[in-house]
Design a protein that fits this description.
3 helices, alpha+beta, Pemi-like Protein 1, Chain: D, elongated, two-stranded antiparallel sheet
Length: about 100
């Protein structure tokens, strides 16, 4: 595996990641990367695939946004459900 290569910056500010490095990393056309400047050095990072939880959260966020559901709506609904659960627990615990 090649771990370093010399590359040239184009007049448009573009650089090419050599093919063998792209293949090793599994990079494909359209993949997004993060370029980070640290102490006058450029670091290039792959953006990891979102976790199943992150994917589900994003789907729910888009779904709510499409339907005009606000954060306040969600907080109110959660509060109402918690209150109902609290009342049910108290009812079950109280002597008859």
């Amino acid at each position: 595996m090649v771990t370093s290569r010399r590359v040239r910056l184009s007049s448009k500010g573009q650089l090419v990641i050599p093919q063998e490095m792209r293949e090793t990393l599994g990079l494909r056309t359209g993949d997004e990367l993060i370029l980070h400047l640290l102490d006058e050095r450029l670091l290039l990072f792959e953006i990891p695939e979102p976790s199943p939880f992150e994917q589900a959260t994003e789907r729910l966020r888009r779904h709510a946004q499409e339907r005009g559901i606000t954060r306040e709506d969600v907080e109110r609904a959660v509060h109402e459900v918690r209150e109902e659960m609290y009342r049910e627990r108290r009812k079950r615990r109280s002597p008859k």
